[in-house]
Automatic annotation (TrEMBL):
Keywords for the protein's UniProt record, in alphabetical order: Hydrolase
InterPro entries (UniProt xref): UCP07580 (IPR016516)
MF (Gene Ontology): hydrolase activity
Organism for this UniProt entry: Alterirhizorhabdus solaris
Designated name of the protein: Metal-dependent hydrolase
Highest taxon listed in the record's lineage: Bacteria
Length: 282
């Protein structure tokens, strides 16, 4: 299979700390409880989820080509930094008065289910979730409206995370291709497609449940809240609507995350993080 990963791609961790010593407003995204709950519910998944991604990819690093091995190492460094910063962000969410214990328990339950299966299942789930996070990151960077009303430090955190999700979006997929190189093409497509459908179902169910949990803590329940959530997700700013095409592309024969080279989005946003770049690994 052709290698669509750009030959000049550099996966470079940026060691930035966000919001230290500051309190984050309860509704930090423009005073909007629904928008705030969307990002808070997503952030709660990251520390344990990204540790799982690293574990899943590193399990298959032995025997990979030198270039991919280097990309796995850089991917690991980026994900470790993401986990650190979202631990800090989630602490500020708790300090703002939210109980995130039920959301964390739901993450633990999902990860325990996958870890009980063979390691290739964890890699498949990681490969699908990494595509999901990359297309969300693309949507976030492509439309400034998503974070326009956020406080400066929270906006900087989410843009930083999005830059690096795009930058390493092919690593889990290339590791999956290496790990399944002896599989028939149809089997590989069939398994990855079924896993993406399951991952998508779980993502939508779990994140919706998490958002509703956080909104209940604000005293917001009922049909009007559901309508506000649907409007936010699919109308304005409509992130979920905007990723549908990129999500569907995953199922096409010959798909690869780098068939769409969107590094221009990184270039547009990366200047704020130049000083935080770590040296490339030798």
């Amino acid at each position: 299979m052709r290698d669509f990963t750009p030959p000049d791609l550099a996966i470079r961790p940026r060691d930035r700390r966000f919001g230290r010593g500051a309190r984050t407003a309860r509704w930090w995204l423009g005073g909007d409880p629904v928008a705030t709950a969307f990002y808070n519910a997503l952030s709660v998944t990251f520390p344990k989820g990204e540790a799982f991604f690293v574990e899943s990819v590193r399990h298959f690093r032995d025997g990979t080509p030198a270039r991919l091995a280097g990309e796995i190492a850089a991917f690991t460094r980026q994900e470790v930094l993401h986990s650190r910063e979202h631990v800090a962000f989630n602490r500020r969410v708790a300090e703002a008065g939210y109980d995130v214990s039920r959301l964390e328990a739901a993450v633990d339950e999902r990860l325990a289910f996958v870890r009980a299966k063979p390691p290739i299942a964890s890699l498949a789930a990681t490969m699908a979730l990494e595509h999901f996070t990359a297309i969300l990151a693309h949507a976030l960077l492509a439309d400034p409206r998503h974070l326009a009303a956020a406080d400066a430090e929270s906006a900087a955190l989410w843009r930083w995370h999005s830059i690096e999700e795009i930058e390493h979006k092919g690593v889990a997929y290339d590791t999956w291709l290496h790990a399944t190189k002896d599989w028939p093409r149809f089997k590989r497509w069939s398994v990855k497609s079924k896993v993406m459908l399951l991952v998508t179902r779980n993502f939508l169910v779990d994140r919706t449940a998490g958002i509703l949990d956080l909104l209940r803590q604000d005293g917001l329940t009922g049909p009007r809240v559901w309508a506000r959530m649907a409007w936010f997700a699919f109308a304005r700013p409509g992130m979920m609507r905007r990723i549908m095409g990129a999500w569907g592309a995953f199922f096409l024969p010959g798909f690869h995350p780098w068939r769409h080279d969107d590094r221009a989005l990184i270039a547009a946003a990366d200047s704020a993080y130049q000083d935080a770049r770590l040296p490339l690994a030798a």
